[in-house]
Structure of N5-carboxyaminoimidazole ribonucleotide synthase:
Amino acid sequence: MRVGVIGGGQLARMMIPAAIELGVDLRVLAEADGMSAAIAADRVGDYTDLETVLAFAREVDVITFDHEHVPQDVLRGLVDAGVAVHPGPDPLRFAQDKLLMRERLSELGLPVPDWARVESAAELDAFIDAHGGTAVVKTPRGGYDGKGVRVVRTAAEVHEWFATAAEDGRGGALLVEELVDFRRELAQLVARRPSGETVAWPLVETVQVGGVCSEVIAPAPHAAGRMSDVAAEIAFAVAEGLGVTGVMAVELFETTDERILVNELAMRPHNSGHWSMDGATTGQFEQHLRAVLDLPLGGTGMHADWSVMVNILGGPEEGSLADRYERALSEHPTAKLHNYGKAPRPGRKVGHVTAVGDDLDTVVYEARAAAAAFQD
Ligand code: ADP
């Protein structure tokens, strides 16, 4: 069983131990030397070049991804050449383009924020006026960690975004949404095999700081029963409706008037699922490999009542994470560290820690304190 991962970031890196345990031969096509997954990156090459990607794909049974940026023409070229690609180009379109995603989810009758496609400042101002004077504008493609997302009161604030959108040859359209009054953000992680079997992990709460995920609590507190059922139903409907294979995270808003709305889709293992590596019977990286190989999926139950993941954002101002090991590991023996092998840089995700246990306050404290020990 050989799996090829396109992209050499930390998600590819975290698939490596899961592959070893399953006896899967994992190959990585990295963008550059020395990336997070360099330990398994036997190839470095341009993922936008079909010949490079085809040569890599010929050595494996299935192609999957560390990110969603492989262009559609390359994905289609792989499929045309008979390569198994999971997730395939059809579902990936909806993870690559937020306008297409909103359109499709609305067609499927799934709950999303009020939205519109706008091609001019006048159209955007009309939407803002109709939604109480504020709205959220998003570039349809290429945004991440809050980049390409802006709260605006007038179209003039995103004047240059229309110009940039026009340049990428897609009609200059932007996505505009109502500013959702949310109580908190949630994420529903699921996995689906090509033959259809689909499983869900418990619904989680995600905490964002400055547009970047900082903390995840599994399961989401006060979300038992109806709310978690609704979230799982939504994620199953997305996975089936879009034909997603592998792991998918559905990012959700819990509104102040008790609704669940879909914000974003990630068709790969996701930050909101890192807790599962240490907190659930089957971690998301192992599950992703099982799913893309069309193997039976593993159980998603939790080892303990709570599991909390805290990102190490930036890392120490000087030196590396390893320079902190002596003190951090001795002071926090119950926290599980995952070091991505990346150079510290302000705001960069360089690792995470997870704590697991039956008392939420203790678990939150342990995870936060351990992560703090690796930051200044
Ligand atoms: P990306 O995943 O590209 O960073 P998102 O669409 O997930 O972008 O938006 C980033 C963050 O911005 C969200 O996590 C949320 O906190 C906030 N946000 C996005 N859309 C809305 C909205 N319609 N209303 C209120 N806040 C929003």
